[in-house]
Structure formats: C-alpha cells, structure tokens
C-alpha cells in the first residue's frame, strides 16, 4: 500500500483523485489543496514556482509520500522539472489531454478549454504541434470556470448563463466534436457542460487527463510500495488554510474522505 499525495491549488484535483481511486483503491491518499494561495492560474511564473516549492517541501517533510501527483495543469507546466530535480520520489504531472483528443476526433476540429495561463504557455503549443498538427485547435481561456467548479463543491448554484457564455466558441462552431478539459477543475463540471451541449443539440466528446494519470499511478505506486490489490486505503483531505465550508466538507466525505487536516506552510 502506497501513500499518494494529490496536490492542487483548489478542489480541481478531486477529479484526478476520483479517477485514480477508481483504478487504485488500495492506496492511502492525501488530497492536498493549497487553498491559502488559490488560484494558481493567475500567478506570475516566478511567484508560482516559489509557492509550489514551499508547499511540496512542507508536504514531503510532513507526509513522506511514496508518490506525488501535481494535479494542476498550471503548476505542472511550470514546476515539474524543478520538483523532479529536487526529489527522488516519483512525481506525476498533469498536462492537457491533447493527444487522446486528437486521436479520437473524427472532424479533426477540437477545442482546448484551460486557464489563461495554460493557454498562453509555450508548452501547451508544443503539445498541439506534436500531437494535433493535423487538427484545428480552438483555444479557450477561462478563469471563471475554475471559480464555478469551486462553487459547485461548496454547494452553491452554478450560473448556467455564465457557463454557456464560456462555451460559446464551441457552440458557434458545429464542426468541433471534441473538447479538452485542460484544467483539473473542469471535469467537476462535466455534467453541467454536457447539459449545455444537449440543450444546443450538440454532441461533443469531453476528454480530460484523469484516466491517463490513473494508469500512471497504477504503474508507479506498486513498484515503490508493494501494494496489493483488493485492499482499501484511507483518504485524508488536507488544506493550507482552515476550511470553513460545511457543504464542501460534506461533499468530501461523500467522496470517501474520513480525515481532515491543515498543513502549515512556513513564511
């Protein structure tokens, strides 16, 4: 049984947690949310690197994980090389699922929905050039969708008009048949996104990184921990600032979290 830390700035990493637990229920999980510094998507790169370095150092010192999943596209595209150079444990990052989207698209017209920071990074364009050179890719940057996902987990009402507006570039292009949810927050709104498409008589396939990350954890964690199938681990939700959201705590309990804790970040 391995101890796996799944780390994000907000609750978006829960989409990765759900995908991983479906495949590897036997491990112990700590979902770590840096809610004290949320959101990451609007931070300058140097500030983001510094923050990720602080949080990961504190997490590894306190938790001694066997494996770390950086369940944030923004942090992954910026900080993975630094983290892998500094730590010996396996570190799995999340990148936009452009390759599977390009492979599955019939029309070869796909949309990429991500935070503005992920949209603008050269790394994202490099993925498009490598894996979707035969596709037309419409880029949509949205920070508002991150906030909508956070609201959903807190039990607040989702603004359907705002969601529809964000998806307008896809709704206006009837040739787009695949949408990449390139932020871990976005799959938490998959039901609402699909409802918008149904209301506009559109069939658009949603693709995200969760299944690929789950396969990677399944490959890595037993190698380092001798995990056995058939066991069920425990799940802890950890935050960098005290949680004052009863409905979120209830939703976390429904997802299987039995323990809640705070991680103190120095400085």
Q: Give the terminus-to-terminus CA distance.
A: 33 Å
Judged by helices, strands and strand pairing, the structural class is alpha/beta
Shape, per Cα inertia axes: globular
Tally of strands: 10
Rg to the nearest angstrom?
A: 18 Å
Strand order of the largest sheet: 4-3-1-2-9-10
Q: Report the major sheet.
A: 6 strands, parallel
Average pLDDT score: 92
User: What portion of residues is helical?
Assistant: 40-55%
Name the beta content range: 15-25%
Written as H for each helix and E for each strand, in order along the chain, the element string is EHEHEHEHEHHEHHHEHEHEHE
- Tell me which CATH architecture of the largest domain applies here: 3-Layer(aba) Sandwich
Put simply, the count of helices is: 12
Low-confidence stretches: none
Query: How many structural domains in the coordinates?
Result: 2
Give the CATH level 1 class of the largest domain.
Answer: Alpha Beta
What is the CATH fold-level name of the largest domain?
A: Rossmann fold
Features:
267 residues, alpha/beta, Rossmann fold, 2 domains, six-stranded parallel β-sheet, 10 strands, globular
């Amino acid at each position: 049984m391995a101890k796996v830390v799944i780390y994000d700035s907000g609750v978006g990493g829960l989409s990765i947690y759900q995908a991983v637990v479906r495949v590897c229920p036997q491990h112990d999980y700590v979902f770590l949310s840096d809610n004290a510094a949320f959101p990451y998507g609007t931070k300058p790169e140097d500030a983001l690197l510094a923050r990720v370095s602080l949080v990961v150092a504190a997490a590894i010192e306190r938790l001694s994980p066997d494996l770390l999943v950086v369940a944030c596209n923004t942090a992954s595209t910026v900080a993975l090389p630094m983290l892998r150079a500094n730590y010996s444990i396996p570190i799995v990052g999340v990148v936009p699922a452009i390759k599977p989207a390009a492979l599955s698209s019939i029309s070869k017209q796909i949309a990429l929905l991500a935070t503005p920071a992920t949209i603008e990074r050269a790394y994202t364009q490099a993925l498009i050039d490598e894996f979707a050179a035969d596709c037309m890719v419409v880029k949509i940057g949205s920070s508002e969708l991150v906030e909508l996902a956070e609201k959903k987990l807190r039990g607040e009402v989702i603004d359907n008009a705002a969601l529809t507006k964000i998806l307008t570039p896809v709704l206006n292009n009837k040739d787009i048949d695949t949408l990449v949810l390139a932020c871990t927050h976005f799959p938490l709104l998959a039901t609402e996104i699909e409802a918008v498409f149904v209301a506009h008589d559109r069939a658009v396939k949603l693709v995200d990184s969760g299944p690929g990350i789950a396969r990677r954890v399944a490959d890595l964690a037993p190698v380092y921990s001798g995990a056995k199938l058939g066991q069920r681990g425990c799940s802890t939700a950890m935050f960098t600032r005290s949680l004052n959201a009863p409905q979120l705590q209830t939703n976390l309990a429904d997802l299987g979290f039995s323990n809640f804790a705070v991680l103190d970040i120095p400085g």
